[in-house]
Amino acid sequence: MNYGQPYAAGSWFEIHNSKLENMISPLASVDSTAKIGKNVTIQPFAYIERDVEIGDDCVIMSNASILKGTRLGKGNKVHHGAVLGSDCLLYTSPSPR
């Protein structure tokens, strides 16, 4: 996995090289130590604790919680209200055919 820099709460859109990469809601709570990959969407009221790694092309839906130490591989979707604990390790989702 290739992770980006730690994310600090800010604007809804984070733009790099004039290309939209991440959509992170200012209503989401994202710890500054979280490592966020490219093309990640984090919806309002999502909660991301410290030392979390989120791979490229992931979607974290509203009211989802990702607890400390959790690592998500590329292409995962965490649905509304889901809680992932620190024992969780999700691998890359298979490509749709």
Secondary structure layout plus pairing:
Blueprint: E1 13-16, E2 19-24, E3 29-30, E4 35-36, E5 41-42, E6 47-48, E7 53-54, E8 59-60, E9 65-66, E10 71-72, E11 77-78, E12 83-84, E13 89-90
Parallel strand pairs: 2-5, 3-6, 4-7, 5-8, 6-9, 7-10, 8-11, 9-12, 10-13
Antiparallel strand pairs: 1-2
Task: Give descriptors for this structure.
single chain, 97 residues, mainly beta, 5-stranded mixed β-sheet, 4-stranded parallel β-sheet, globular, disordered N terminus
Write a brief caption for the model:
The chain is an all-beta fold. It has strands spanning 13-16, 19-24, 29-30, 35-36, 41-42, 47-48, 53-54, 59-60, 65-66, 71-72, 77-78, 83-84, 89-90. It contains no helices and 13 strands.
In DSSP terms (H or I, runs of 4 or more residues), the helix count works out at: 0
Characterize the main sheet: 5 strands, mixed
Strand order of the largest sheet: 1-2-5-8-11
Name the beta content range: 25-35%
Query: Could you tell me the mean pLDDT?
Result: 78
Number of strands: 13
Distance between the termini: 22 Å
Query: What general outline do the C-alpha atoms trace?
Result: globular
Topology pattern, helix = H, strand = E? EEEEEEEEEEEEE
Output the structural class.
mainly beta
Unreliable spans are: 1-6, 8-18
